[in-house]
């Protein structure tokens, strides 16, 4: 049956693995560019979701929106009510180090956050939550096969996009080893723990807090194809 935020009635129409960009238009782009036999499975609040096939495998892609409360709602409903086994976030991030350039791909080993999301959920009081190792291994194998370099490490999941102290990222990078910042993966990892499911996070560097370089909104929507292709080609079971 449908949930308050996902209109799909028949859960058999959603794949066991869901790719989850923050931007619903990025979900639309992936569906139209890579998938065959596409069916739209959600349009509530314009949070577009699609199911199709990729190289014969059934796969779904759906937007999460921005921030932990938003991905927290959608990922929990997918895990809990639609029998989704694995969610791979494919998002954008801001670099905390000059060793990362625009369009570099980062695989999160863990997410550190100041957020109380996991504690409020009753899952964990820890400030760092790990990605699922087996899914990360599949993503690394996919990247290697495609010849795409990835950077692995801890990332920062923040509740705040516009920080008053713009240099605070330097302390976070030094104290917690965070390579970059985004706003969703900590909640996704918490929901995976809460439901006994699997979660991972692939990111493309869209801007740099060090060099102040940045990409456009259109580039964030359509140009992050290496990250998309790594996720699409990962042999995550069940797909």
UniProtKB/TrEMBL annotation:
Residues 17-225 form the Nucleoside phosphorylase domain. GO terms for cellular component: cytosol. It catalyses: uridine + phosphate = alpha-D-ribose 1-phosphate + uracil. GO terms for biological process: uridine catabolic process. InterPro entries: DeoD-type, Nucleoside_phosphorylase_CS, Nucleoside_phosphorylase_d, Nucleoside_phosphorylase_sf. It is an enzyme of class 2 (transferase). Belongs to the PNP/UDP phosphorylase family. It comes from Acholeplasma hippikon. Its EC number is 2.4.2.3. Keywords: Glycosyltransferase, Transferase. One of its GO terms (molecular function) is purine-nucleoside phosphorylase activity. Pfam families: PNP_UDP_1. The keyword Transferase applies. SUPFAM superfamilies: Purine and uridine phosphorylases (SSF53167). This is Uridine phosphorylase. The gene is deoD_1.
